Amino acid sequence: MPVTYEIIDEPAAVLARYRGRVSLSDISTLFQTYSQDPMFSLTRPHIADIREFDSSTIGFAEIYALFSMFGKSYSEAGAIMRVAIIAPDEVAFGMGRIFENLTEQSDWARAAIFDNLQDAKAWLKTEL
Length: 128
Fold this sequence. Notes:
Blueprint: E1 3-9, E2 12-21, H1 24-35, E3 46-54, H2 60-77, E4 81-86, H3 90-104, E5 109-114, H4 117-126
Parallel strand pairs: 2-3, 3-4, 4-5
Antiparallel strand pairs: 1-2
């Protein structure tokens, strides 16, 4: 499976790992799946680990569609989505930066990009 998730306790977050080729449909299905998990709530932040992600078929249109999909759920609920993106290489960083830039224009989302899981977790703890 190209996208997997686990709900972690420290910090309380959804850790999603993206591996290989991942489609918008894969991400949408994953979000629907963990939204049904009894441990999930919209107030639980996300860690998007895209270190092993194949970005060759992803561009601005796909990132914007993903942002819009999350926006529908979060803005309608009046919740703030917080996403720590792990993107250590230049291509992954560029994709993460597009998403981060979109969140800077919204009132329902916050995002930041990190090189490693430890820094991503530390940021989430400060963004409560």
